[in-house]
Amino acid sequence: MSYYNISKNDIDTWYIREMLGVGCFLFEGSEKALLFDTGFGFRNIRKVIDKLTSKPLVVVNSHGHTDHAGGNTQFPQVYIHSADLKMTEDAWQKNQRDQLIGYARKNHFLARPFLYWLGRSRPHIYDTEYKAIEDGVIFDLGGRRLTVTHFPGHSPGSIILTDEHTQTLYTGDAVNSGLFLFFEGSPKLKEYAERLNDLAQLQGYSKIFDSHSKNPLPISFISHYASFLERATLDKSQITNFPNGEKDVYVYKEEGIPFERDFITVHFTKDLII
Ligand SMILES: [Zn+2]
Ligand SMILES: [Zn+2]
To answer: At what angle are helices 108-118 and 90-106 packed, to 10 degrees?
Structure first.
């Protein structure tokens, strides 16, 4: 079994999914290509990309978490929102790594691949130069424009890429069926629901690809998830064993069948629910 599973999710968009359950997207225009995220970076993702496109490559992070930015050092230059720049520093990456190892140890069987991979080193080819991006920046790939929408919450510098060409939002970890909102600076669930309702006003888009699911969600999922967050209460939630310093992480869940998901969930800390 290969570490990377490669498929096309649209005419000009590749989906490169790692064995550890995170995916990167490669978009091609007539002049340039854009890689959205670099994954954990335990293997050489650069080689994979070089086989798929020969066009000049722009690399952009959806946010600074280690499962999305871990492969950055395989590329000379990476764009990231300014609020997540700090996260990509090595010390932070090590903290995340320790957190993941703690999680893998506690969760035994299902998380065992993390233990194996986290013990390995990652290719470090470049002292990557970081370029800050802000809300509204447009990457023009030639006949294909990808626009940056800043969508903080899961992390301060999380972004969504909107692709008019395929009427798709690429949301990273900012919109999905199992949101993690238990990090420092995460907003209250109701506040995030308001942001989602604003996003749902976007016209001309039909679907969402997030970074951890193989199948897309319909655009209507955004407002559904906003109302889901408003229904979450502490007494209907359960404590999980996610490692998160001093704070307990709770999960609220509902069935996700209409959206071809077993469950829709949100993980949060209790200070975010009032
Ligand atoms: Zn993340
Ligand atoms: Zn992630």
So the answer is: 150
> Mean pLDDT lowest for which of 25-29, 87-91, 149-153?
87-91
Does a structural domain hold residue 44? yes
**Closest-lying ligand to the alpha carbon of 158?**
1
Domain range holding 261? 177-201+226-274
Q: Are strands 23-28 and 13-18 parallel, antiparallel or unpaired?
A: antiparallel
Domain count, the chain: 2
d(CA 244, CA 162): 32
Distance from the CA of 212 to the center of ligand 2, in angstroms?
7
Beta-sheet strands, E only, within 37-195: 57-60, 77-81, 129-133, 138-140, 145-150, 159-163, 168-172, 178-181
For residue 211, the CA-to-ligand 1 centroid distance in Å is: 9
Instruction: Supply the pTM of this predicted model.
Output: 0.94
